[in-house]
TrEMBL record:
Record-listed E.C. numbers: 1.1.1.100, 1.17.98.1
Origin: domain of life: Bacteria
Similarity comment text for this entry: Belongs to the short-chain dehydrogenases/reductases (SDR) family.
Enzyme class: oxidoreductase
SUPFAM superfamilies named among the record's database cross-references: NAD(P)-binding Rossmann-fold domains (SSF51735)
Gene name, Swiss-Prot/TrEMBL: baiA1_1
Transmembrane segments: none
Pfam families: adh_short (PF00106), adh_short_C2 (PF13561)
Name of this chain's protein: 3-oxoacyl-(Acyl-carrier-protein) reductase
UniProt KW keywords: Oxidoreductase
Signal sequence annotation: none
UniProt-recorded Gene Ontology molecular function terms: 3-oxoacyl-[acyl-carrier-protein] reductase (NADPH) activity
């Protein structure tokens, strides 16, 4: 039976680099995204290298799309890994769309793949260093549990909090909140997946040379002075981390976030230190 690895946001950047790493390890890779042309190009490149891969168009903010994706993945083989790397930056949409894609998108993917995850499988959600840099006191942590019981009320209360901030800052605030929520959600979801002998982790990338990262390059450069490594990362420097963590021999590792940011947060980067 094929070992299936689903990679959202797999058409380019970190997602595509992770898809290549997983394919090298013998996984049947499903590259997921919204841009069908980009997905087709990514799959073609993998197949040229002799890898088994397919493209699947899906908007992770659409819950039904996510469940359809999970059902199809299960038809392809044993779903051993889900690398949820898709997301929206503050430059890619308004505050509500960012919250839907990043926060609800994570809930949708985890919920959908809980139904089909194979024993020994692993889901890795993706956050951002903005979750660490934004002040903790602005995070509506009491609202987070609603994502597990009432998604509409969750969104209403999250957006109500976002709208307390000046209009010009709302996209950035929504992004930080959504990524802070992602870390929380992955941690609390570990107990649910453990009942199926599966794991949940999150990875927090720093600034990487990717199409998404380039949208924030100017702002990100202000934090390089805090980093131990004075440059942005390359997708090839984090992709092996995703694939290493889905190794079934790491069966006791779950419910935690792993930073890969060149030492930026460790160096004291925060919203108040620029």
């Amino acid at each position: 039976m094929k070992k299936v690895c689903v990679v959202t946001g797999g058409g380019s950047g970190i997602g595509f680099a992770a898809a290549k790493e997983a394919a090298k390890k013998g996984y049947y890779v499903m590259i997921v995204g919204r841009n069908e042309k980009k997905l087709a190009g990514a799959v073609e490149e993998l197949r040229k290298d002799g890898c088994e891969a397919e493209a699947y168009s899906c908007d992770v903010s659409d819950r039904e799309h996510c469940f359809a994706l999970a059902r199809h993945a299960a038809e392809c083989g044993a779903v051993k890994a889900v690398l949820h790397i898709a997301g929206m930056s503050p430059h890619m949409g308004d505050a509500e769309k960012i919250m839907q894609a990043n926060a609800l998108g994570t809930v949708n993917i985890n919920d959908a793949f809980f139904e089909v995850i194979a024993e020994g499988g692993c889901v890795i959600d993706t956050s951002s260093t903005s979750a660490y840099m934004a002040p903790s006191f602005i995070m509506p942590k009491r609202v987070y549990p609603l994502a597990c019981t009432d998604r509409k009320l969750f969104m209403d209360k999250m957006m109500k909090k976002v709208k307390m901030f000046p209009r010009k800052t709302r996209e950035g605030v929504a992004y930080s909140m959504s990524k802070h929520f992602t870390i929380w959600f992955a941690k609390q979801d570990a107990a649910r997946f453990a009942r199926k002998n599966a794991r949940v982790l999150s990875i927090t990338p720093g600034n990487f040379e990717t199409p998404l990262g380039n949208l924030e390059k100017e702002e990100a450069s202000t934090y390089l002075k805090f980093a131990a490594i004075k440059r942005n990362g390359l997708p090839e420097e984090i992709a092996p981390l995703y694939v290493a963590l889905i190794d079934e021999r790491l069966s006791y590792l779950t419910g935690t976030d792993i930073l890969c940011d060149g030492g930026c947060i460790a160096g004291g980067a925060s919203a108040f230190a620029r």
